[in-house]
Amino acid sequence: MTITESGTYSISGSLSNGQVIVNTNKEEKTYIVLDGVDINCSNSSAIYITSSEKTVISLADGTTNVIKDGSSYVFEDESSDEPNAAIFSKEDLTFIGSGSLEVDGNYDRGIVSKDDLVIQNGNISVASVGDGLRGKDSVVITGGNVTINAGKDGIKSNNSEDTSKGYVSIEGGTLDITAGQDGIQRETNVLISDGNIKISSGGGSENSSSSSNEWGNWGMPPDQNPQQQTITSDSSTEESTSAKAIKATSNITIDGGIIEIDSSDDSIHSNDSLVINNGTITMSSGDDGIHSDSTLEINGGTIDITKSYEGIESQVITINDGNIHVVASDDGVNAGGGNDSSSTGGRPGQNNFSSSSSSEININGGYLVVDATGDGLDANGSITITDGVAIVNGPTNGGNGALDYDSTFNISGGTLIASGSLGMVQTTSTSSSQNTLNISVSAQEANSIIHIEDENGNEIVTFAPSKTYQSVIVSSPKIKSKSTYKVYVGGSSSGSEIDGLYSDGTYKNGTEIGSSSVSSSVTSITQSGITSTSNMGQPGGMQGGRRP
Description:
Blueprint (H helix, E strand, L loop, with lengths): L1 E2 L3 E9 L4 E4 L5 E13 L5 E5 L2 E6 L4 E6 L15 E5 L2 E5 L3 E6 L3 E5 L2 E4 L3 E6 L4 E3 L2 E4 L3 E6 L4 E3 L9 E4 L3 E6 L4 E3 L3 E3 L3 E6 L28 E3 L5 E3 L5 E3 L2 E4 L3 E6 L4 E3 L2 E4 L3 E6 L4 E3 L2 E13 L4 E3 L1 E13 L4 E3 L24 E4 L3 E6 L4 E3 L2 E4 L3 E5 L9 E3 L3 E3 L3 E6 L15 E9 L5 E5 L4 E5 L5 E7 L8 E6 L2 E2 L2 E3 L2 E3 L3 E2 L2 E7 L4 E5 L22
Parallel strand pairs: 1-3, 2-4, 3-5, 4-6, 4-7, 5-8, 6-9, 7-10, 8-11, 9-12, 10-13, 11-14, 12-15, 13-16, 14-17, 15-18, 16-19, 17-20, 18-21, 19-22, 20-25, 21-26, 22-27, 25-28, 26-29, 27-30, 28-31, 29-32, 30-32, 31-33, 32-34, 33-35, 34-36, 34-37, 35-38, 36-39, 37-40, 38-41, 39-42, 40-43, ...
Antiparallel strand pairs: 23-24, 43-47, 44-47, 45-46, 45-48, 48-53, 49-52, 50-51
């Protein structure tokens, strides 16, 4: 059935092997109401829009509409691979209405627009061999319930010729994406302002890059994983596939929404800059939790990285606000590849950084809790803290440190608590304006309290690290020059505990391990019989050698 004049058309009924074609005036819009259809085309797109200013497909209330194509196409032009989706449009395509749409893309893609693809409403389910939704110029979702099960990318926009296009914008609605490759992938920017978004990519975090150092970029060996091949995009440029949940060549901005991610590769990845202003984001990653090549800025929101290789990674990382929890099998927060280059060096799934020589971690506010098997805060450059709370449960092995930096670590405000092993201890720099206590103790069990109080018995910090520890670095505005501080281990507290930090309670039954008067910006308190190996206020080095 071919529609040759613009207007509004209502379609119902079944078409067992046929096609609806829209070929109208390019300066006029065409409206199609799907009012309970079942359209199957065995050798091409079931709905094929060749010409129209814009086509709007309305899903009639209370109806279920099924669109399917076959597994092989017959093309009019054998040199072309279009159309290549169950619903394919060469023009702008918009979906509205509260009905249901089920799309089976058995040849390649589910729904494609060569211009802008917009979903305003509807209950839309897409299953596809290739990409689920693709809009060359943009994909915009403002509402509806969208479920995608795609063999390749879940949502993709791929215009690489115009920097104002090739973006994905999620402004509302509910999305549930299962993708063999990237969940959301765009040539330029990804913008998320609202919505309830769930993404599983590449088989999830259990199919991680750590499975074998001899395999490809991530997960299973290349000969068993079709995602680890090189494909040709519509712009005829070669690109390496990946299994990231949210991926942008340029910038990613998240202003809100509820986002849940389980990714084989990076959970959120930008080849340029990334900004998180708000939202509730939970992620489990087989590689990095959040990565950007250039800059990464967190201004708010709740971020929970429950599993990752590197937790938060960029050339320059700035945390101004937000509630952030990070669990990492290597470094928790890593700037520029880290002081020991642990995030590069040829590991599977490794990422790039910008060419800038400045690598920085800047914490100006917020609440950050890190649980890292490698380094807790690791900068191939400098670390600066001016405000906020940073808690680090660092490594238990001697080849890593809770803090690791190459240049300086200046702290002028906020609270820092960093626990870990004694092997590669670094403290804050002696140039800091806020005082720091560098504490070395005998090996303490996980969840064993360390308590610091002043000469009058006032609590400075009562903290129970989540892992075994011998070193604790504490910096707080409460630590005053020319005052004396006592350190206790063990015992108990009647206070309320969040992330190991106790407040509003009474500490008792601990064992005093030492005390000291603060006469410089970094003061060491070492339990008798313990040898400290810390670099007080000095840049770190690769004392333990480069790690794989």
